[in-house]
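ugh ok so i messed up the first submission bc i forgot one of the chains. this is the corrected input, ALL of the components this time, i swear. 677 residues overall. if the numbers dont match what u have on ur side tell me asap before i send this to the collaborators (the ones from the other lab, u know who)
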Amino acid sequence: MRFILRRLAFYLVAAWVALTLNFFIPRAVPGNAVEAIMSKFPNLQPSAYRALEAMLGVGHPGSLWHQYVTYIGDVFTLNFGTDVLQYPAKVSTLLAATIPWTLALVGTATVIAFFAGTLLGIIAGWRHGGWLDRGLPGLMFLQAIPYFFLALILIEVLAARLNIFPVGQGYAGGLIPGWNLAFIGSAVYHSLLPAFTIVITSLAGWMLQMRNVMITTLGEDYVVAAQAKGLPSRRVVFTYAARNALLPQLQGFGLALGFVVSGAIIMEIVFSYPGIGLLLLNSVSADDYPMMQAIFLVITFAVLLANLIVDLVLVFVDPRVRAGEAS
Amino acid sequence: MTAAPVIVATAAPVAGKVRTLGRWRRLPPKAKVGVVLLGFFLLAAIVGPFVTPYDPSFSSPNPALSLHPPDAAHLLGTTQSGQDVLSQLLVGIRLTLELGVIVGAVATALSVIVGVTAAFLGGLWDDFLSLTSNVFLVIPSLPLLILLLGYQPQRGQLATIVVLSVLGWPWGARVIRAQTLAIRNRDFVAASRETGERTWRIIVFDIVPNEISLIAASFVNTVLYAIGASVALAFIGLADLNSWSLGTMLYWAQSQQALTLGAWWWFVPPGLAVALMGTGLVLLNSGIDELGNPRLRDAARALRVDGHRQRPADPTPVLSASTSQRGPAGRFLHQFSRASLLDERRGGKR
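and heres the new structure output, hopefully the right one now
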């Protein structure tokens, strides 16, 4: 229990740091959304400046402390201001429309890649020198490819040339989003290729890490002892070796998550997938600061939450964590 | 008797050459491939900009040269506005690799400073610095990079280098802190302290030289991170789009629909260059790992005894013997491996 509380406190600190950074970055750097709009429309009168500030809620009235308190309150009530790009729309509304797409695609694909990679890593570590193990350099090459680039190639070959998959978008044109079979089927069909891209680019990383830890663990005395007792190989591998090798793997999962998710979100752009990635691209090219800030917070909080879940899983999986040895 | 020194003098260089060759031969194949790949790109980065056949930004007014497939005049074809892809690639490799190396150097220096300081000061400072690096490890860096870079008035190479360096140190700092904690309790550090050496001298002459291996590994990793992040940032348009890096090449290829137009020669070369550079770095790192930790090596040959393949869990006296009988090169390279961390932990007090 103490472990969980300690981790919870840590994530609260991390969340606070992210919030505070998000608060100070716009105030520390010259240039803001209003100036971006002013420079884009040179025929605006200088007097429009105040009006724009008030409209977008980016003016900074009051003392810094007062602003900070208001800002924290806004975040907790999910008030991220008004979007610059699609003007009257609220940032939170736009985000709410895209998050489920990203969560379903990136979340599912990442979890699949993690489990598949870990399993393959166990096998590669056990059958050390086998065909799976020798294919590892090829997988490393896949891992080094930027997500979005692999996505481009796959679209070109599998979608544009062979017509097996759709070229992009989240669902077939003409369908109205809703809980009906046609729409869900189309959405799943459209997510297959992006998901596949995420899985094969992130698989190698999990696999390599698990394999290396497995090989080290397999040399431990307790594994040798288990084998000497004549236990079946399957049991030695999974109950004795893999379970012990899982701790660094799960910890690594938490840390690498931010990286994987960021890469996957960039990849969404290539597929014109209606997720956060596209929103991010548009907000960057239009200097849509309120949106950029909200996206940063959303991704950060999602990763922190996932890390907390990983820690909870660790407590159940690994008695060493419960005993407080590994923290 | 008088002939002996002559023999030694002539024998030494020969032995040296043999040793260098032997060292190269004993490198795991992964590391060899990594070194060759990186050497190739390094060469391209150094020589490339001087041998570009065309000005990478020059748009040919000739409409026939728009999206021209590769031929003798344009080895990698042309872009939509008639720019030579090969020239862009050569300049782009230079810019991207330069960024990677500079960020790697700056961020690694930062991580050494933070890691060693935290381990040496201990107490509240250590807690604070460790907490900071852990927090920045867990906050996803790409969205933060986008935010930081998005607010920059100029999104040039320098701004990217600064932002990537500022966010690139926590991982290295964490590893180096752990290593410093292990080393500072060793006898030779205690001896230095007893003889009245100042703390900074102990750090510079006793601690840091013993961490060169880790610092090198963290440098390679940081270069990998910097290249990946800078390419991703440029791809979404957060870069100086008038300069040619591998990322901006991909940005233009994507934004001008190279894919839909079927111009594979436009977007495949920069992406492949990024992928191969990354593969080289990953291979180098894991090859070095294997050199130090023989267990991780490709066991196809080594573990087949009398036609029976040995399972990893089998006691393998051959392996343990070879570990203890490492040559000078083996010992040197062992320091670079992740396995050497285990040595420290077993011996030293944590």
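quick check: Chain B touches chain A through 62 residues (CB under 8 Å). that seems consistent at least. The CA atoms of residues 254 and 260 of chain B lie 9 Å apart.
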